[in-house]
Fold this sequence. Notes:
Elements: H1 17-29, E1 54-56, H2 71-75, E2 81-87, E3 99-107, H3 116-120, E4 126-128, E5 143-144, H4 146-149, H5 170-174, H6 211-216
Antiparallel strand pairs: 1-4, 2-3, 3-5
The chain binds iron/sulfur cluster (SF4) (2 copies).
One iron/sulfur cluster (SF4) binds at residues 75-76, 78, 80-81, 106, 111-117.
Subunit structure: NDH-1 is composed of 14 different subunits. Subunits NuoA, H, J, K, L, M, N constitute the membrane sector of the complex.
Binding site for [4Fe-4S] cluster 2: 76, 111, 114, 117
Organism: Streptomyces meridianus
Amino acid sequence: MPDGSIPGNENSRTPLLGPVAGFGVTFKAMFKKRLTEQYPEYKKPTAPRFHGRHQLNRHPDGLEKCIGCELCAWACPADAIYVEGADNTDEERYSPGERYGRVYQINYLRCILCGLCVEACPTRALTMTNEYELADSSRESLIYTKEELLAGLEEGMVDSPHAIFPGMDEQDYYRGLVTEAAPGTERQTAVSKGEAPQEGASDFGPNEPASERVIKK
Ligand code: SF4
Ligand code: SF4
């Protein structure tokens, strides 16, 4: 147009008033109720079943529920889980049964927090927490390792590896018959992780010489 205005746009006929009108919008917004959350000072509680960071759970005596079966990894649509299973031994036992998850990683650069892995887990080893602060500044730090995902120790638990509760078998753990670590339970040495031998490491279990000592207590 010869006067510099844009057809159909009334503001374009008053080019000097345009910026002032823009400040008017800002001025009006200053008195409106704020819509933004006061994060991180105020963290809004999530819904109880919110899908947040995963957790690898333990049995009540501290042994791990994960059996290294990889079903969670196969169920994941984003290929975000990496699992390597290994055999338990009487000298180094992480879970009550034959196998345990030796390596467990979840890549939160890929994970879409859909929960399909939780549905696939046969032992309820894998669940999701309400933690949602998963941002970080490097790719490596967003690949969570087993040590980061493993649940903390609660009252009555002893950190894995340690021997199975004397007189109990794997099924008894899933029947809920083991409610805490047996008296005298001590953490074993983790030879596979290169730990130095510990003085007085646990050596009891149904087929182990010190089991009588523990049962008598
Ligand atoms: S929540 Fe979904 S995307 Fe994330 S690891 Fe589990 S199955 Fe994969
Ligand atoms: S978390 Fe569950 S599904 Fe995944 S490897 Fe462990 S036991 Fe299997």
